Amino acid sequence: MKLALEFQRQTVGRNDAKSVSTMFALGELYRFEGKYAQAETLLRNVLQVRSDGLGQEHLLTFFTMGGAGFRVRKPRQYGESETLQKKGLERRRRLLGAGHPDTLTALNNLGALYLYEGKYAAAEPLLVQSLEGRRRVLGRQHPDTLITTNSVAALYRRTGKYSQAESLYTALLEIYARVLGAEHPERIRTVNNLAVLYRDEGKYSQAEPLAAEALERWRHTLGEEHPDTLTAMNNLARVYTEQGKYVPAETLSRQAYSIFEETTSDVWRRYESQSLLGATLAGQRKYSEAEPLLHSGYQGMRQREASIPAANRSITSGRCTI
């Protein structure tokens, strides 16, 4: 796709509609692969070209505005994201109507951004309204409806409504297995999310096999170095650690930390792995090895706290909800 984009830029121009569409598709591909910086650069370029060429009121412009705004998740950029999302939602409501699928998408994206920021009171009415609308307009088994269902379940988990979250996750898994298949990315994400829910509740016998499945399937579909795979490694390692299974926890956290070091990825997850590795060593009474890892990991996370999603910030105070 990258070669196709270069060819189109040379033959029809950088701002031609075909080039811009390919740029958007490549940005989405980078996002799926976990190459978030590259994805954001392309999506911002698409937004700029469409805004300049088509105008702020064109459907393609505010479709891009919603997508690009949703993907801006760097420290101190949340305000920018909210502005883009709100503009996109307002225009969709005005030009398309409240029940249009694109308007429901904008509702979902803004609600998901609030969820990411930890603004749960602001997120809930948007996500619930989007879910009800998508169920009504698209049906309960439509992929967009399922994505919003997952977001509502995550909201309920983070606000302590565990039974409601479990009910939604369980229903999602049944639909995914029947309609989309066992290795569909959203099904794997739901398996991982349900594992986290059970871990939060201390139901480790239910959490462990789900966390292991999520890791195995992400390894198979995304590879060892993908951010989702590394997240699953840390998640399963934490499930092991909280049960006192320090040896398998050490193996996983050491592997995740090693990958972060090899890829020179300076993100908070790297320091979470380092801290978690220290905790597994401390659990085995290897205190001289554990201490520098715990100290460095903690300091690394504190220095990057602004980039940690709200649901995970308790990691710096001793408790993590991945």
Describe what you observe in this structure:
With about 325 residues, the chain is mostly helical. Among the domains are: about 140-215, Tetratricopeptide repeat domain (Serine Threonine Protein Phosphatase 5, Tetratricopeptide repeat), CATH 1.25.40; about 225-320, Alpha Horseshoe (Serine Threonine Protein Phosphatase 5, Tetratricopeptide repeat), CATH 1.25.40. It has 15 helices and no strands. The protein has helices at about 1-10, 15-30, 35-55, 60-70, 80-95, 100-115, 120-135, 145-160, 160-180, 185-200, 205-220, 225-240, 245-260, 270-285, 285-305. It starts with a helix and ends in a 19-residue tail after the last helix.
Can I get a quick summary?
The protein has 322 residues and is mainly alpha-helical. The chain is 77% helix and 0% strand.
CATH C-level class of the domain at 223-322 is Mainly Alpha
Count up the helices. 15
- Low-pLDDT parts are 68-76, 318-322
Main sheet: strands, sense, barrel: none
CA-based gyration radius:
21 Å
Secondary-structure content class: mainly alpha
- Strand residue content: under 5%
**Remind me, CATH topology of the domain at 223-322?**
Serine Threonine Protein Phosphatase 5, Tetratricopeptide repeat
**Which oligomeric form is depicted?**
single chain
Query: Could you state the CATH homologous superfamily of the domain at 223-322?
Result: Tetratricopeptide repeat domain
What's the order of the H and E elements? HHHHHHHHHHHHHHH
In helices, the fraction of residues equals over 70%
N-to-C CA distance: 33 Å
Number of DSSP E strands: 0
Mean pLDDT: 84
Overall, the morphology is globular
Supply the CATH architecture of the domain at 223-322.
Alpha Horseshoe
